[in-house]
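Hi P.,

Sorry for the delay on this. The queue was packed all week, but I finally got your sequence through. Input first:
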Amino acid sequence: SGIVLQDSEKRRFEIQSNEKKVVISDDTNNQICLDGSKIEVSVGGKNKITLDGSQCEIQIGSGGTITVRDGQVVIDGTSSISLGAGAAEAILKGTQFLQAFNTHVH
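Then the structure:
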């Protein structure tokens, strides 16, 4: 069961709840879910932020995730990971650098 609200511009919002879960959604597939100790925000069904007692995870479509957990930041990208124009230095690829360093000749 749920409650459906509509504003003056005919946008529709729905609130659903059960024992420990409340979901607020709109007609453009945006959603906020409060589920016990977890909060999830979804935009357009593609991008999502999930917060719980141990981590924060950001998903950008199917392109990758950023997870912060226990003082560690994990970035998973499907094709590449890069820093923006304001970055002080480029990313150094450790495995490729080590191979080049170990095979160089003086």
